Amino acid sequence: MFNFFYDDDEVAKQKVLSYLNEQNITLQKINNLLLNNQNNSNTIYLLGKFNHLGIGISVDEQKAFDLYQKAANLGNSLGINDLGKFNWNINLGGCYEKGIGTDIDYQKAFELYQKAANLGYSSGINNLGHCYQNGIGTDIDKEKAFKLYQNAAELGDSSGINNLGYCYQIGIGTDIDKKKAFELYQRAADLGNSSGIYNLGLCYRNGIGTDIDKKKAFELHQKAADLGDSFGVNSLGYCYLNGIGTYIDKEKAFKLYQKAADLGNSFGINNLGNLYQYGIGTDIDKKKDLNYIKKLQI
Question: Which of 247, 193, 243 lies closest to 220 in space, CA to CA?
Fold first, then answer.
């Protein structure tokens, strides 16, 4: 179950729910199991995750933070990492990065990812690469980011593999190699990583490291969307709006952009605003268009 949390929060939640359903484990049963086994750092961490994602219980970010902190204090690498990050994999460092249950502290987030990475935790190594790539709690160092993604990828971390692919695609800390980017996205997709599936769809849609195959692009965006990936949902809307690998359905495009926007995807928010502005798949509503523009500026 721990591997599910390498994905985005919504995707991870759906994977957990599907797994529990396949195993005929009720949400009440798993939550009781976690509550009754709080001497183990892994179950403490999992309970924190369930509180953070709202799996079988209401979302409680403060409780999630406290449980990640408790797991981290016991030396749990997942707890340390999760206290550092919120947007990607919600780890102890993630709480400080995104202000979950505490004030935002990028320096603290960086230190926690560094600690998790030193323990050999692949997700911590990947998140540390994210810090160096984007200057979170440290100076930007794209070569260091590339090496950390490479290290995480070598450990089999699906997000690290996907991020390494992105480095090769646009030349972050290395030379551009679109064929290698395609191969890495394929590898991440094969591991079930929703971002890898989405990026692989982009490769087929735009001919990045492979031939253009719009039907395959549509299928991959659909697969990423089914996993709850906001970028996949947004891109699926784009496919329906423009007839990429499928028929044109502007109302369906509108609904998908709405879903992506509800998930907080900035591209989805922008696209939804455009549809309201021009009355595509819905009635013209300039007021709503303005509201979405303001939402992007927050």
Answer: 193
Q: How far apart are the first and last CA of the chain?
A: 35
| CA–CA distance, 62 with 54 (Å, rounded to integer) | 12
- What is the per-residue pLDDT across 14-68, written as a single tens digit (0 to 9) for each? 889 999 999 999 999 998 989 998 889 999 999 999 998 999 999 998 888 888 8
Could you tell me how far CA 269 lies from the centroid of its own chain? 17
Same topology for domains 105-212 and 213-297, yes or no? yes
Q: What is the C-alpha to C-alpha distance for residues 160 and 296, in angstroms, rounded to an integer?
A: 28
Measured distance CA(151)–CA(161) in Å, rounded: 9
HSE-up of 85 (CA within 13 Å, CB side)?
27
Report the amino acid identity of residue 92.
L
| Distance separating alpha carbons of residues 210 and 220, to the nearest angstrom | 14
Between CA 163 and CA 150 the distance in angstroms is 9
pTM: 0.78
Q: Give the three-class secondary structure for 144.
A: helix
Fold of 105-212: 1.25.40
pLDDT tens figures, 29-40: 998 989 998 889
The fold adopted by the segment(s) 213-297 is 1.25.40
Predicted local confidence at residue 178, as pLDDT: 98
Continuous H helices in 158-284: 158-170, 178-190, 194-206, 214-226, 230-242, 250-262, 266-278
Q: Please report, as a single letter, which amino acid is at residue 80.
A: I
- For the chain, domain boundaries: 1-102, 105-212, 213-297
Per-position b or e across 221-253, b if 16+ CB within 10 A of its CB: bbbbbebbbbbbbbbbbbbbbeebbbeebbebb
Give the C-alpha separation, 11 to 5, whole Å. Answer: 8
